[in-house]
Amino acid sequence: MLDLNTIRENPDRVREKLALRNTPSTLVDEFLKADNLWRDLVSKRDEMRAQQKLLGRDSMEEAKELKIKIQKLEEDIKLLSEKRDDIILHIPNLPSDEVPIGKDDSENVVVREVGEKPNFNFKIKDHVELGKSLNLFNTEKAGQVAGARFNYILNELVLLEFGLIQLAFKEAIKLGFIPVLPPVLVKPEILKGMGKGKFLDEKEAFYLPEDDLYLVGSAEHTMGPYHADEILNEKDLPLRYIAFSTAFRREAGSYGKDTKGMLRVHQFDKAELFSFTHPDKSKEEHKFLVEFEENLMKKLKLPYRVLDVCTGDMTFSDVRQFDIEAFMPGQNTYRETHSCSNTGDYQARGINTRFRDKDGEVRFVHTLNGTAFSQRPLIAIMENYQTENGSIIVPDVLREYVGQDIITRNG
After folding, report:
1. Which residue stretches, if any, does this entry annotate as coiled coil (predicted)?
2. With contact defined as beta carbons under 8 Å apart, do 359 and 340 qualify?
3. Do 33 and 80 belong to one domain?
4. Residue that finishes a domain, picked among 46, 63, 89
5. What is the CATH number of the domain that holds 219?
6. Considering the domain boundaries, does residue 233 fall inside one?
């Protein structure tokens, strides 16, 4: 959540920033109205409590009346507090002044392009055709078992995925990241504290009503609250984690778009980077995480580009966001494989994660998250490394995990 004082003291600035995010500024007005009423009632309650303390034994009737009034005020204060909290959970983070201004993903800015696109002298296949011909995944069988947009991943593609994950963990651990296998179920109040209210409102999350739990859409959702309600030591920052989990998303609103094969599915695996950082170092940490993601892509020798995500396309909780997109020949375009976000103190406020600085002051940390590898790079590998006879060359860096240099027809 945003700092309440930021809205109270700079409402016009907040309105301007929200407009850049295509978010109605009326949320600011609604918050201020509820907040002013809340503060007025709290002030009245405190005055009555002070009066109550001054009353003697000969004022029992007056004390009784005051008690009833205070109880009524407490009820009204609670309702206003809940209303105010609900409003602020629907206000996204404020984009940094460095973020390019734009209405949607068409106005994201390409920072750099790396690597050369492959030049094929034969008719290429997309990953769906390759997956079917090489028996690497089976959408039809998964559809019979679980419904649309699920897959059985098979044969060498399983080994390629595990290779990606092992490579990411190996490289991260060398840099001091702590490996984690986190829960894949999370309480609604935790998701809201993490700034994922929109994820819930738009029905993106799968819900288990009997348990009042949600399936995570990323390991970010359960790694952020790992230090909830803690006060960390400044000397321990940054605390860096790499977490592997299966992720679940409805992908609401994308029906009929990118739904073939493995691009937009309801279930996928992902290794996620998460960092708890000193506020003065979060820009530096953001750069570090993006460079880590790029180094992984370079090891795969895949052509990619880095995007500076514009205000209208940023994730709800972000101050700034960079995406990496791999070139996918089968679609003749770039598609996102990695994202990397700096959320400032937005998530830390929601989950109450703080640190004590060298002067003894307790402050909120900054949190950052980024993709190490999901399953999407598998698509880029299949399409960029395909051969004329329909096989797929295994990238050099993954051969030790796959156990062979080339994938041919299997089974």
Report:
1. 56-90
2. no
3. yes
4. 89
5. 3.30.930.10
6. yes
Asked if 42 and 188 sit in the same domain, the reply is no
Rg (CA), the chain: 25
Supply the angle between the helices 376-384 and 155-174 in degrees, to the nearest 10: 110
Are 257 and 356 found together in one domain?
Answer: yes
Q: Please indicate, yes or no, whether residues 77 and 180 belong to a single structural domain of this protein.
A: no
Torsion of CA 324, 327, 331, 332, to 10 degrees: 130
Same domain, 38 and 152: no
Residues paired with 233 in a beta bridge: 356
Residue 338 assigned ligand-binding role: yes
Strand order in the sheet with 178-180: 109-114, 304-308, 320-328, 333-342, 366-374, 267-277, 239-248, 178-180
Number of domains in the chain: 2
Does 267 appear as a known binding residue? Answer: yes
Structural domain includes residue 190: yes
For 274, the domain range is 105-407
Amino acid, single-letter form, for residue 318: D
Q: Was 355 annotated as part of a binding site?
A: no
402 annotated ligand-binding residue: no
Q: Is 137 labeled as ligand-binding? A: no
272 annotated among ligand-binding-site residues: yes
268 is in an annotated binding site: yes
Instruction: Indicate which CATH number applies to the domain containing 83.
Output: 1.10.287
Reading the chain (411 residues) residue by residue, the pLDDT tens digits are 899 999 999 999 999 999 999 999 899 999 999 999 999 999 999 998 888 777 766 677 787 888 889 999 999 999 999 999 999 989 999 999 999 999 999 999 999 999 999 999 999 999 999 999 999 999 999 999 999 999 999 999 999 999 999 999 999 999 999 999 999 999 999 999 999 988 888 889 999 999 999 999 999 999 999 999 999 999 999 999 999 999 999 986 555 556 678 988 999 999 999 999 999 999 999 999 999 999 999 999 999 999 999 999 999 999 999 999 999 999 999 999 999 999 999 999 999 999 999 999 999 999 999 999 999 999 999 999 999 999 999 999 999 999 999 999 754
